[in-house]
Amino acid sequence: MPAIPNCPDNLSEENMRAISAPYNFVPLSDYVHIPEWSKRASHDWPFEDGLSGEIHYTLVAESPLLVGGEQQKATGESPATIKPFKLPDGRYAIPGSSLKGMLRAVTEIAGFGRMRMVDDRQLSIRDLTAGARPFYGNLMTRTVGRRVFEPVAKAGWLTFDARKSLWVIQPCEYARVEHDDLAIYSRDSWWRSVPREPEARNKYARWSRRGCSLTVDFDPDAVRDHVHSRGIRLRYRKALNLGSGKQKGVLVFTGQPARRDPRRNGRKHMEFLFYNAKGARLDVPEEVWRGFSQIYGDNSDWNWWKTRSPIPVFYLLDGTGNVQSLGLSLMYRLAYRKTIHGAIRNSCQQHLEKDGGYDLADLLFGFVDGEGQGESLRGRVSVEAAVAQGDVTRDVQPPTILNAPKPSYYPNYILQNAKKNGTVDHYHTLMDKNVRIRGFKRYT
Questions:
Q1: Chain centroid offset of residue 330 CA
Q2: What are the phi and psi torsion angles at 418 (to 5°)?
Q3: DSSP letters along 296-321, please?
Q4: Which of 54, 145, 215, 313 has its C-alpha lying 20 to 30 A from 37's C-alpha?
Q5: How far, in Å, CA of 280 to CA of 169, rounded?
Q6: CA distance 236 to 330
């Protein structure tokens, strides 16, 4: 086995390539236990043989703890800081609410309870690797030859139709334009290299400062195959003769990926010209718009675009000619076909039922209908703060980049069919009809 640079002797190449995480999952049960007496539980009518009492316990910290207390957001001069939680008298402690949440999570698992405290999020994917071709690449492009691909997404102008109370798309054609040609046309050498600005709005601002109009005369070339990185050919139409062509188009900028070595192929070096808008406008179905809004809700370009009209977008059609997804770039983030709740239902519909009675965790810790349309039940468990005993040593954590677990990471969060050696031939994702999540997350 070849040596791995800077690899400790006790780590094999296989281990270095394995996925590691500080958490694992308890499989989601295909059965939810609802005690037959759960509907009769009430604080007003105690059970005749009911018991009450206290449990005293001691927690031992086997490793340093950080229970978040006072926090300070990052500024241009200093990073974010988090101080340990303290009681008003200055003693370090773990809040009772944190311990109660931990106990409830264990009870949900051990008592075959519901998994319903999960937001029904619409996740998305943009993965250009070969392994993701079955559930991303093959949906966004079609193979038209050996290592020759053609984008499937169409272009159009997005507006809101107040009469229909719907967003609609006016279809149009598009051509791609080289950054080098934009540099010559605008007399701005900035376009000859990959811009450091990842946001499309900053490109528009740069173009505007040069005094250039977004309406450009050009000639659309015929659709041809063009060589890109790693010998791959992409089939599309190029824009030629900027400023002197016979066709008028509108320049459309899209976001820029992270800067790469400019000496290497693979960097993004093209933008778009939208032209020849024609045909009937297409309605964007409500569920498609809802998915788009969740995916782009925190996107800075969308927050800039949504106050303007019309908005340039790319979209896919389903087999009946209806819009099934849309985005702000040609290879946009594609909404999964299943939401998180849809994957949970594939394990057991009871996990998301609201009126099927209370499970054990509800009966002990209470339940509140988040939508305010159903019944609520007061909890029977109170947990006091766990106060630190003895001398407490406080260490300062060096500056650290923190990152939260991402439920969109399908190798970990989706139930996979792994072989005995741990390898997977085909990854399941939320694109699959019968997809199921891994289960309840538990940190190790």
A1: 18
A2: -90, 150
A3: HTT-HHHHHHTTSSSEEEEEEE-TTS
A4: 54
A5: 9
A6: 12
H helices within 4-89, ranges in order? 13-17
Pairing mode, if any, of strands 148-151 and 233-236?
parallel
Q: Structure tokens of 278?
A: 């024609």
Answer whether the bond into residue 5 is a cis peptide, omega within 30°: no
Q: Which two tokens stand for residue 423?
A: 């390898």
* Alpha carbons 222 and 307: distance in angstroms, whole number: 35
Q: Can you give the C-alpha Rg of the chain in angstroms?
A: 28
The DSSP symbol for 134 reads I
SS3 347: coil
Pairing assessment for the beta strands 23-27 and 224-227 based on DSSP bridges: unpaired
Q: Tell me how far apart the alpha carbons of residues 123 and 290 are, in angstroms, rounded to a whole number.
A: 11
Residue 190 burial by CB count (10 A; 0-12/13-18/19+): exposed, middle or buried? Answer: middle
| C-alpha span between 417 and 166 (Å, rounded) | 41
Let me know: does 328 contact 156? Beta carbons within 8 Å. Answer: no
Residues 339, 332, 301, 230, Cα dihedral to 10° = 140
Is the pLDDT confidence value at 9 over 60? no
**Dihedral over Cα of 273, 252, 196, 401: its sign:** negative
Q: Are 310 and 156 in contact (CB under 8 A)?
A: no
Residue 199 DSSP code = S
Least confident range from 78-87, 108-117, 210-219, 285-294: namely 78-87
The amino acid at residue 432 is: D
- Residue type for position 362: D
Evaluate whether 427 touches 410 at the Cβ level (below 8 Å). yes
Q: Residue 48 gets which letter from DSSP? A: T
Q: Single out the residue of 7, 41, 32, 61 nearest to residue 379, CA to CA.
A: 41
- Residue 370: what pLDDT? 63
Cα 29–chain centre separation = 25
Q: Which residue has the tokens 């349309």?
A: 373
Task: Indicate the DSSP class of residue 352.
Answer: G
Tell me how far apart the alpha carbons of residues 270 and 268 are, in angstroms, rounded to a whole number: 6
Percentage above 70 pLDDT, the chain: 91
Q: How far apart are CA 267 and CA 260, in angstroms?
A: 6
State the DSSP H helix or E strand holding residue 175, giving kind and residue range, or none if neither.
strand 166-178
Q: Please tell me whether residue 225 adopts helix, strand or coil conformation.
A: strand
Q: Which residues, other chains included, contact 276 with Cβ-Cβ below 8 Å and sequence gap of 6+?
A: 172, 173, 247
Here the tokens at position 368 are 């509140």
